[in-house]
Amino acid sequence: MSLVTVGSVAFDAIETPFGKTDKIIGGAGTYIAFSSSYFMDKQNIIAVVGDDFPKEMLDKLRDKGVNLEGLQVKEGEKTFFWSGKYSNDMNTRDSLVTELNVLEHFDPVIPASYQGCEYLMLGNLSPEVQLNVIKRLDERPKLIAMDTMNFWMDIAMDDLKKALKEIDMLIINDEEARQLSDEYSLVKAAKKIREMGPKYLVIKKGEHGALLFHGDDVFFAPALPLEDVFDPTGAGDVFAGGFMGYLASTDDISFENMKRGIIAGSAMASFCVEKFGTEKLEALTKSEIEDRIQKFVQLTDFDMNHSV
Amino acid sequence: MSLVTVGSVAFDAIETPFGKTDKIIGGAGTYIAFSSSYFMDKQNIIAVVGDDFPKEMLDKLRDKGVNLEGLQVKEGEKTFFWSGKYSNDMNTRDSLVTELNVLEHFDPVIPASYQGCEYLMLGNLSPEVQLNVIKRLDERPKLIAMDTMNFWMDIAMDDLKKALKEIDMLIINDEEARQLSDEYSLVKAAKKIREMGPKYLVIKKGEHGALLFHGDDVFFAPALPLEDVFDPTGAGDVFAGGFMGYLASTDDISFENMKRGIIAGSAMASFCVEKFGTEKLEALTKSEIEDRIQKFVQLTDFDMNHSV
User: Fold this and answer.
1) What is chain A's mean pLDDT, rounded?
2) Does B192 touch chain A (CB under 8 A)?
3) Residues of chain A contacting B246 with CB distance shorter than 8 Å
4) Which of A261, B30, B45, B165 could form a disulfide with B197 if both were Cys (CB 3.0 to 4.6 A apart)?
5) CB–CB contact A219 B300 (8 Å)
C-alpha cells in the first residue's frame, strides 16, 4: 500500500556529551523516510529544500525507494537549519539556532501520482501545512497519523485543534501530551486528547518506551536498554517511520497489528540513537532489523502460566 | 517454601498532592509482609518496634499468616517514625522527620523456627544489620535478595560492599543504581553492580517499570498506567514482597519464573499506590490480583508473526 510522508528535509548541527557535528542532514521527513524504507519498496515524500541541499542525499533517498516528486527545490533559497545541544543525561536539549528558511512559506504540492495513497504520515510541521495536505488529497487515506510539538501548541493552538479533528492518530511525546491536555497523568491525558479527535494515540516516553491507546485498549512497548545513547535526534521520527512503514506494508490497521508496528518502530529508533544523525539508518540490513525486533520479544516476553 | 523478611515495622506520616495522613503504619517489613502474604500461607518476619506500636496491627499481620516470633517489642522505647512530603508530580519526595528510635540499636534475633528458610528478603536497613542476619542463619538460603538506599551508600559503603558479596539479588531503584555504580546508563550500571556480587539485579524505575538482569538476559516489565498515583510510599517494598512471595510459593528461581515474579510484584505495587499506606494491601482478594496480573499480560502482549 502507498505511504505519503510530509516532513522537513533539513540541516542539523548536534552537540551531545559524546561529540558534536558540523551541518549534517536531518529533518523529520528524512528520518521518517529512511526508517519506513526498510518496510516498503516505494513511498512518497512531500517536502521543501533550498538549492544548498546536497544532491547526493537526495540520491540516497531515491535509492531507498523514496519518490521525490513532491519535494520542492527552491532556487536561491536556503534549507531549514536547526542546531541543538543535549544535556549530560540526554534528557533535555536546548535549541541553539532555528533558521526556518524555505519552511517559512512552505506550500505543499501534491503530485498526481501521490493521490489515492492509503497511509499518510504528517511529520512535525505547522498545523496549517498539515491541514493543507489533508485538504489537497482527493480521497481520504485509510490512516492519517500526525506528529506535532509544544511550539505549535504555544503559537497555533486553533489550527492544531482543527488538524486533530481530521486525523486518526496522534504520535507525540509525554511532555507534549501533558501540555496538550493539561493533565499530568498520561492515562487522563490520553482520554482528553482522544476527545479532541484522534481515535488512536501514541505517547512516546523516550528511553522509557511508548504507549498506544485505542478505545479501552492500551499497549506498552519498552525502549531497548542500551549501553549508550549517542544521539537521540530523530529517534521519535524514526519510530513513527518504522511504525507507519510496518502498517502500510502489512496493510492492516487492527490493534494487534498496530502493536507489531509499535515494536517495529521501537526497534528502528533503537538503531537511530547509536550514531549521529541518519548514519546508522542509511545502511541497515533486514536481518539486523529482525534480530533487533527479536530482542524486544526476549525483553518483554513472559508466560504467566502459574496462578496466584 | 519458607520466606524470612527482615525490615522496618514503623510509623509514617505522608503528604501527597491528594492529602495528608496522621501517623499511620508503614515500614519496609510491613509492606513486604502484606504483599507476600497473598502468595504464601505462612512466612516469617524479623523486626523491632517500641511499646507504642498498636497490637491490632500485629494481629492483622498474624491474620495474614505472618509469624511474628522474630519481631522484638522494646518496652519503654518508641517505634521508628518517618514523615515525608511528595512533590506535585510525585517523582520526588522530601523527608521531613526521621526518628530512628528502636532501629538505632537494632540487633536482629533469629528464632530457631526461622532456621533453614529457603528465601530471605533483606528489606532496606543498615548493611550491618543485613549482614548480621545472613551470618546468624545456620544454612545459606536458596535465594537472598536485598534492598538498600542512597543513605547507606553515603555513610556505610564498606559494609554495603560486604553485604553485596553475600547476596544473590539486589533490588534497588534507578537513582540508587546510578549512585552505586557511578554510571548513568542503566545497562552499564547493571554490569558494574553485578561485578560487586549479586548475580541477579532488579532496577525499579517507578512509574516507568522495572528491569531484571541476569547473565546476558534482560527482562522488562512496565508499571501499569494509572489514572492517579495516590501515594507511592511502600510501592518498591510491595513490589519486592510480591516478587519474593511469588518465587517462594512456586519455589522456582529459573529466569522464566523470575519474570513471572516481576509481573506479580508489579501488579501488587499497582494496588499499593491507589490508597494511603497499607490500606489497599490489607484487604485484596486473589481474583483482584489475578485480574491485575492479566492487565499486565494485555498491556505487554504482542505476537510478532509477520516478518519485516
Assistant:
1) 96
2) no
3) 306
4) B165
5) yes
